[in-house]
Amino acid sequence: MHPTIIDCDPGLDDVMAVLLGARTLDLVGITVVHGNAPLSATLRNARQVLELAGLQHIPLAAGVDRPLVRTPHHALEIHGERGLGGPLLPEPQLPIHDQHAVDFIIAQSHRVAGLHLVPVGPLTNIAAALLRDPTLPERIAQICLMGGSTTGGNSTAAAEFNIYADPEAAHIVFTSGIPIKMVGLNVTRQVLATPDRRAQVRALGSRTALAAADMLDFFGEQVQRIFGLPGGAMHDPLAVAALLDPRIVAFQPMHVAIELRGEHTYGMTVCDGRAVRPGAAEAGNRRVLPPNAEVAVAVVPELFWELFLEVLATYE
Hints:
It is built from 12 helices and 13 strands. It has 316 residues and is α/β, with parallel strands linked by helices.
């Protein structure tokens, strides 16, 4: 079990990532960032979910409430006005850790050997930690993030939401030298919570599973209305699953650059797979940069769902 911090912005699919990771990883803490909703909402949502699932023992730290440079960008049209559509959960009582999320990440990197980071929201907390402590990459074993795409985006034609919400932070993370696995839309959109899958979740019958099914129903209704998809993509839990079972997600080394100046491509992950050729150094007159990430290129949805349903069945 990898010692891990999940950095999230709950968010419906963030909830599924937390439920999966809490049972399968050595989860040393959860940090919360702005993103799918303002920080006040994502923090409340995280507290509610930990209480719902009986996970109050996991430290929860509040992080950065806005992007490094740009104005905040949220996804309430997908996740609901509270950032967590579906069941109306009780107001939370769970206390918040006394450290800021950035300080928490740095402190845990000193305390825990081989620490993994699983950011499934905008990368602001991780970038802020890197800016505060330039030695942080020496103590992080790996980042396995949900974000970007080898193809098109969802916030814009070119940019995926988590990267688009703070491209400058993403640039800092991808140029940090930390080993990175990038799980993007090109694979997550192949893992949909269709009505049949939601029925499997609901059939588990527990309080937690029923709440998760309600959330996935709300998620499915929103993406059906906006994008015409038959269910919400399991974006964030797939980044957790990628740490757990190498059969679920296949990766290819690429150089990933974050577009920071394009009029129509701001926030795009420019994924260059040319350098995977043995000895590749030049492509015509254009320099081929060495890979800085392992980029997800294929997924086996059935294996993900087997894992997710098995883990969800352990909750009351």
